[in-house]
Write a structure and sequence with these properties.
Strand content: 5-15%
Largest sheet: 8 strands, mixed
Low-confidence stretches: none
Number of strands: 8
Shape: globular
Number of domains: 1
CATH topology: TIM Barrel
CATH superfamily: Aldolase class I
Helix content: 25-40%
Number of helices: 11
Order of helices and strands: HEHHEHEHEHEHHEHEHEH
Distance between the termini: 38 Å
């Protein structure tokens, strides 16, 4: 299917400066590896979502273009490299995410914690958001991340429960909800965030149920966006959702008690994360 007009993004200047800075520090971003349609806008600000724990993921989700392969060894210098890049960009809000590392006993939790601390050392006034994998439901790993003191804990639910076997075959809907609830229970002062995609074949009744499940499990912030097929190897788009439907879902979510909701075709989990936080 051809992209509708409301999904096309303009070209932005300043992209290459940000890319060169990231390469100089030996870093990857989920903006590039996941082929985010908004990377031009974010890089031109400049800002980026840092991707830690290497470029290779141990899972093979149907929607994601990040390479699924045997992971590389953990880079012990990576936390300092991320902190140095964030300082050079003069970021006031830093977002850290990772590939899923089921090969590591802690799922990479300590690397998240070390990165948070390294950023605090360089940018003590900056806010920090982490977007983590599910750690296979290991609450000890979750605690390691939360004890490092991020301002926002994010874990994306991605889709409705029925579609999990195709969209997230190595994950679990209830496990992700439980992770969000545990994060809120362990650290009530930390904002809990999640997000999901539309256009994979879900029904609106299923989406409403998903909203209710997220709210019941401690989710404060929410992002809702249109799924866009990153490569031909990924799941096809079943439907392009009209902007009006995103507005209606935003209103429905706010009425359920979410503190802030970003909903629109080009909304992504980390896009404008600083603005979302500051609006509270």
């Amino acid at each position: 299917m051809r992209l509708p007009d409301w999904i096309k993004t303009p070209y932005r200047t300043g992209l290459h400066d940000t890319k060169h800075l990231l390469r100089r520090h030996g870093l990857s971003t989920v903006c590039e590896d996941a082929r985010c349609p908004n990377r031009g806008e974010c890089f031109s600000k400049p800002t980026a979502t840092f991707l830690i724990l290497g470029p290779c993921c141990t899972r093979n989700c149907g929607f994601c273009s990040v390479t699924s392969a045997t992971p590389v060894a953990v880079n012990i210098h990576e936390p300092d490299q991320v902190a140095a890049a964030a300082a050079e960009l003069n970021l006031k809000y830093v977002v850290i995410t990772s590939v899923t590392r089921d090969d590591l006993p802690d799922g990479g939790a300590d690397q998240f914690a070390q990165t948070i601390r390294a950023i605090r050392g360089r940018l003590p006034e900056a806010r920090i958001e982490v977007l983590t994998p599910d750690f296979n439901g290991d609450l000890n790993s979750l605690k390691v991340v939360l004890d490092a003191g991020p301002d926002v804990f994010n874990h994306n639910i991605e889709t409705v429960q029925r579609l999990y076997p195709a969209v997230r075959p190595q994950a679990g809907y209830q496990q992700s909800l439980s992770l969000l609830k545990s994060a809120k229970d362990m650290s009530p002062a930390i904002a809990v965030k999640s997000g999901f995609m539309l256009g994979l074949g879900e029904t609106m009744d299923e989406v409403v149920q998903l909203l209710e499940d997220l709210r019941e499990n401690g989710c404060d912030f929410l992002t809702i966006g249109q799924y866009l097929r990153p490569t031909k190897k990924n799941l096809p788009v079943v439907k392009y959702i009209l902007p009006k439907a995103f507005d209606e879902l935003k209103d429905a979510a706010l009425s359920m008690g979410f503190s802030y909701v970003a909903s629109g075709p080009l909304v992504r989990s980390s896009m404008n994360a600083e603005e979302m936080y500051n609006k509270l």
